[in-house]
């Protein structure tokens, strides 16, 4: 039974598609956490503005569903990036500083999620969203550009939760990259 601790099940999801499942799960859970932050700060965004981006009338939980789907997709992108040999190598590299050397792969992946959340906030609401709104002329979505700065907290929560869930569910300890990308 001592050999069982070396299996992927001892650390989390392994195999060819493990990073996809872990990324989608982490992204969906992170999107729920982000959605809660946005619902507290600006309740109308999820209900009306997000569906308006796609020309959909705000009905029921459509905004939440779109938001969670966005999170799952962004989580898969995170999983793809984190499991690349260079990024994974940096996350697993031993460092000379004694304080940093005690930080394990879970904390480092969570920190990578935090940075990813910051990057997503920089690219999507600040750069892509205004261009999207101008291109499709989405009515009701104008509120999103005015609260982009306020969504920083939500994106940081999203990234941190994404990184933590990904690290808790995907085997990153001695992973060899088996993905087709």
Write a short abstract of this structure:
With 181 residues, this protein is mainly alpha-helical.
What kind of sheet is the major sheet?
Answer: none
Topology, number of strands:
0
Helix content: 55-70%
| Cα radius of gyration in angstroms | 18 Å
| Alpha-carbon distance between the two ends | 34 Å
Return residue spans where pLDDT drops below 50 for at least 5 consecutive residues: 1-12, 177-181
The total count of helices amounts to: 9
Q: Give the rounded overall mean pLDDT.
A: 77
Bulk shape: elongated
- Strand-pairing-aware structural class: mainly alpha
Instruction: Please tell me the total number of domains.
Output: 1
Give the SSE string: HHHHHHHHH
* Content of β-strand: under 5%
Descriptive key words:
single chain, 181 residues, transmembrane helix, disordered C terminus
What do these coordinates show?
This protein has 181 residues and is mostly helical. The chain has one domain. The protein is built from nine helices and no strands. It has helices at residues 8-11, 18-41, 44-53, 62-82, 85-92, 98-101, 105-136, 142-146, 152-169. Helix 7 crosses helix 9 (152-169). The protein starts with 7 loop residues before the first helix and ends in a 12-residue tail after the last helix. The model is unreliable at 1-12 and 177-181 (pLDDT under 50).
């Amino acid at each position: 039974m001592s050999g069982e601790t070396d299996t992927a099940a001892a650390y989390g999801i392994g195999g060819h598609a493990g990073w996809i499942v872990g990324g989608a799960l982490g992204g969906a859970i992170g999107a729920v956490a982000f959605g809660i932050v946005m619902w507290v700060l600006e309740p109308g965004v999820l209900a009306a503005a997000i569906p308006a981006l796609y020309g959909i009338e705000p009905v029921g939980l459509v905004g939440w569903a779109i938001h969670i789907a966005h999170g799952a997709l962004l989580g898969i992108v995170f999983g793809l990036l984190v499991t690349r040999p260079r990024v994974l190598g940096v996350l697993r590299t031993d460092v000379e500083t004694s304080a940093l050397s005690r930080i394990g792969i879970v904390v480092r992946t969570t920190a990578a999620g935090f940075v990813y959340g910051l990057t997503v906030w920089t690219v999507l609401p600040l750069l892509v969203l205004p261009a999207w709104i101008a291109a499709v002329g989405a009515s009701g979505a104008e509120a999103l550009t005015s609260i982009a700065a306020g969504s920083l907290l939500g994106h940081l929560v999203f990234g941190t939760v994404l990184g933590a869930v990904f690290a808790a569910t995907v085997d990153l300890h001695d992973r060899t990259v088996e993905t087709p990308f």
